[in-house]
Write a structure and sequence with these properties.
It is a single chain. Strands 1, 2, 3, 4, 5, 6 and 7 form a seven-stranded antiparallel beta sheet that branches. The protein is built from two helices and 13 strands; from the N terminus they run ββββββαβαββββββ. It is mainly beta. The protein has two domains: 2-100, Elongation Factor Tu (Ef-tu), domain 3 (Beta Barrel); 111-172, PRC-barrel domain (SH3 type barrels). Strand 12 and strand 13 (169-172) form a beta hairpin. It has helices at 83-88, 111-114, and strands at residues 2-6, 9-23, 28-33, 46-50, 56-66, 72-77, 93-97, 118-121, 126-134, 141-145, 151-154, 160-164, 169-172.
Amino acid sequence: MLTAHYRDKDVSVIYIGEVVRPYGLEGIVIVRTYAEFSRHLKQNTRVFIPLSETVCSQMVIEWIKPCPRKREYRVKFQEIINRNQAEQITEKLFGISEDALEILPENEYYIYELIGCRIFSVSGEQLGIVEDVINNPGNDLLCVKNGKRDFLVPMVREIIRSVDTQKREIFIELIDGLRE
């Protein structure tokens, strides 16, 4: 999770996509979202766009329309009124406050909650740390780094026994071939 600064407060920002390019002359931009976050983009959503390492701009979505490409949207921010302003935020990440995230149903997690978690076997052996999550049509895969050999762990009930995002721990059933 990255932290952005806005005004005199620290705000925990979860980056949910990027501004791809301007669209037209009236300040509209094309944004691409990460798969799980498109439901967070709606009219009046407050987003954060880092302009530098210490400055983060806060903007409000005036309207949003889907594009033909999957996970791309035309977005009009209230604060952006022309193409020149739109170009200034092109190729920038954008995010929402962590407080604005929807609460997920039981046994569903945001990717940022899983990255950095330690992976243990049900017998207590530490197997590695989640470095990334791959969205796969059948099931998501945890990319586990352990210093010796990296491996993938399918996010299925038969393997994942418990996830504790507060303790940053995931316990798995170690099946044959999983670490190979």
